[in-house]
Amino acid sequence: MQAHPLRLQPGQDLRDALEDTVRQLGATAAFVVQGIGSLSVARLRFAGIDQPSELRADLEILTLAGSVAPDGAHLHMSVSDADGHVLGGHVARGCIVRTTVEILLALLPDHAFSREADPRTGFMELFIRDWPRGE
Fold first, then answer.
1. What residues does each domain of the chain span?
2. pLDDT in tens, 89-99
3. Which of 44, 52, 113, 114 could serve as 89's disulfide partner, Cβ 3.0–4.6 Å?
4. Are 6 and 105 in contact (CB under 8 A)?
């Protein structure tokens, strides 16, 4: 495992930036160990709901975790507003960094992740394969 700290800048889309970073690093598998920071917009899909909800406010990221494959990410996040109310869910595109987001990525060079249709769930799910070093 290789640790890769990352800082996102104001205005960046959180999910796009993570996926782009993993591709630019040439990584075949990564996990977001944790992330903190602030957002001006959070787009979260709540359990059992098909479409994400958009929150527009000064938001603090309390937790951010998930897996990142070259063909996409599966991320969950909890955020709090100025009154301390907390919401969490699946991270959709459109989460915009307000001041900073600090993330620790764990790169897994011995593995390859992909997102593939799983007939049992009906969703694109994580498939994990061994990836011998040097290939």
1. 2-130
2. 999 999 999 99
3. 44
4. yes
Q: What token pair was written down for 58?
A: 């000064």
State the pTM of this model: 0.91
Distance in angstroms (rounded) separating the CA atoms of residues 5 and 104: 5
CATH architecture of 2-130: 2-Layer Sandwich (3.30)
Amino acid residing at 14:
L
Task: Write out the chain in H/E/C secondary structure.
Answer: CEEEEEEECCCCEHHHHHHHHHHHCCCCCEEEEEEEEEEEEEEEECCCCCCCEEEEEEEEEEEEEEEEECCEEEEEEEEECCCCCEEEEEECCCCEEEEEEEEEEEECCCEEEEEEEECCCCEEEEEEEECCCCC
How many angstroms separate the CA atoms of 96 and 56, rounded? 10
